[in-house]
Amino acid sequence: MIATALSTTGFSQEVFDAFLAERDEPGWLTDRRVAAWSQFNKLGMPNNRDEEWMRTDIRLFHFDRFAPFAGIEAPSELPPALLATGVDLAGRSVSLDSRSLSNEISDECAKQGVLFGSLDSLVKEHGNLLRPYIERQLVDPNQDKFSALNAALWSGANLLFVPKGVKVARPFHSFTAMSAGGVDLGKTLVILEQGAEATLLTETASTDPEAGGMHCGSIELILEKEARLRYVNLQNWGSGVWHFAHQMGHVGANAGLQWTIGALGSRLAKVNQHVALTGPDAEAQVNGVMFTHGKQHLCYNTHQHHKAPFCRSDLLYKSALQDKSRTVWRGMIKVDEAAQRTDAYQRNDNLMLSTAARADSIPGLEIEADDVRCTHGSTSGRVDDHQLFYAMTRGYTRQEAVRMIVSGFFQQVFDRITIESVRDALGEAIGRRVRDIEE
Amino acid sequence: MTETLKITNLHVAVEGKPILRGVNLTINRGETHALMGPNGSGKSTLGNVIMGHPNYEVTDGTIELNGEDISEWDATERARAGIFMAFQRPMAIPGVKMADFLRHATTNVRNPARKEGEELIPMRQFRKELTEKMEQLRMDTEFARRYVNDGFSGGEMKRAEILQMAMLRPKFAILDETDSGLDVDAVKLASQSIAQIGKETAGGDQMGILIITHHDKLLDQNTPDFTHVMLGGKIVETGGVELAHELYTDGYDRIRASYPEAAVAEQVMAEVEAV
């Protein structure tokens, strides 16, 4: 637990030193944190001359406006968890402002050697087991200031570890909450050993839908050979939250990852989502559902990296944009020379609900092998007046018609999501947000 | 009292250009009217305006349903009041299944006061009714699971429109070239279906039907009580079924010769269109 003494504003040396002093972590981990902290201080803020940041303006973001571990009073009630409704879970964990609040795991899973819950605690109990995975550093602390900061200060983190051959049918659920003006430096680490199978539903939300705050997070998914993971990540922060995230999945031989991202919240989001297919016959399906409104800005850099032959990757991102919101998607399929017989696909569809909304869609291919199939596509369209009229002549109100057309737009991606509670939660959350199209 | 859809001196413009120039038409429930006329004469416009398409501006005249002027109502209100149009080119709504679309539509039309989010017709009852209607129209049940008009052939779209009419049970139906793009057998089936549906509508009263067509085949089973000819944005002549046969066989030369003013207007409208 972090003492309330750490209330200095900003990410100062004092804050970092006090953080380390409170942690009581193994030396190897402290060393990692110290190195990353030094990197954080060395790296400059990204700027708009950088290709990756030229469409995403963070000049209004300042680290010193936020106080990590400030001991903000916990609200009496957490926001509702959307993905867990009516779901029989194998385990659940809750954190608030980067502090673990509760962790539960079914007896059955615990007996099988599954670890689930607070990485902060579990790394102390299972250091030898977890060390090699943490030291792989799938998310490179040196990538930018945000990856360095998370590597230095991650806390309130989640772990799911499933041992070799263990198949867990029921989903795990982890809920990460942030109070108004709070800071979340969460990390999710999933390790599936050979042949293991699991489903993890994670969601993040603010205690108030209009709250501000800052999230600087990381996700690392490690699938050893023949493992199968369904992973869902719903970002539902308050409308004033800055969201910076580095996300990386490694999929081994014959393993399969289905990764679904839902993005509804935040003021500005900059997400790097990277999937690497590292062994032959690995498979990754990536689904993205975004709904933006107000002046939201969501930027996703996706990377499908084929390192081994006979792998398949299939990415479908769909966003609907209301008001003056904006999305940026930059997709890259990279095929290494060794990755013959790659089958890779990426697609991004955007539906504009207002003339002031804007979607940038930038697919990319970088192919070094010569026997591959790589395709990409992107579309941008508006809700059509003729479609609306047609639905209205069938008794739909205009509002009902817009909602129906938007839900139809997302159906193709919902059809791919095999978890009913996730489809329902996303569908309902989007339906509630659709107001009307603007002329 | 017989319910009536009455159009009086209707003038309509699009982007300031006149398209309808004083249309008069009265349809009582139980009557079948055929509306014929050359391309560009304003037939589809009339249908769209009766439905409340926002792109058309009513510059003069009235559209009355049972004496109430509905020309300011939006399409939703008109649909819920029992007016229906089978479109020549219905819009696709990708991702929305025909059955889901129709369950909402049917609930809304049968329960005009329904607000969004209120209960839909029970699934079991809806399914049963939909299956019956699809069997009557010899449609494969797979159809209900397809996305609305998405990738439909011309014939499939037309049959889907008739299916919607069967489910919505309107008081007044406008069929805009429901026969175009159909082969002879399909037109025959459509013709029979429309006649059948026309007799089965809500409240036991028959539908009032306005059939917009270039042919007379759809009229085989739906003998019009009146045939109207439109030229240059006006209904210039009204007759019985024999007029429909005449126009189909002989074309519009006699009409143009008899109504030179409308023929001139037709020319002007065609030139404006070409610009």
Automatic annotation (TrEMBL), chain A:
It comes from the Bacteria. It comes from Bythopirellula polymerisocia. GO terms for biological process: iron-sulfur cluster assembly. Belongs to the iron-sulfur cluster assembly SufBD family. Residues 180-409 form the SUF system FeS cluster assembly SufBD core domain. The lineage of its organism: Bacteria, Pseudomonadati, Planctomycetota, Planctomycetia, Pirellulales. InterPro entries: Fe-S_cluster_assembly_SufBD (IPR055346), SUF_FeS_clus_asmbl_SufBD_core (IPR000825), SUF_FeS_clus_asmbl_SufBD_sf (IPR037284), SUF_FeS_clus_asmbl_SufD (IPR011542), SufBD_N (IPR045595). Residues 28-171 form the SUF system FeS cluster assembly SufBD N-terminal domain. This is FeS cluster assembly protein SufB. NCBIfam families: sufD. PANTHER family: PROTEIN ABCI7, CHLOROPLASTIC.
TrEMBL record, chain B:
Pfam families: ABC_tran. One of its GO terms (molecular function) is ATP binding. InterPro entries: AAA+_ATPase, ABC_transporter-like_ATP-bd, ABC_transporter-like_CS, FeS-cluster_ATPase_SufC, P-loop_NTPase. Gene3D superfamilies: P-loop containing nucleotide triphosphate hydrolases. Keywords: ATP-binding, Nucleotide-binding. SMART domains: AAA. SUPFAM superfamilies: P-loop containing nucleoside triphosphate hydrolases. Residues 5-257 form the ABC transporter domain. Coiled coil: none annotated. PANTHER family: ABC TRANSPORTER I FAMILY MEMBER 6, CHLOROPLASTIC (PTHR43204). Belongs to the ABC transporter superfamily. Ycf16 family. This is ABC transporter domain-containing protein.
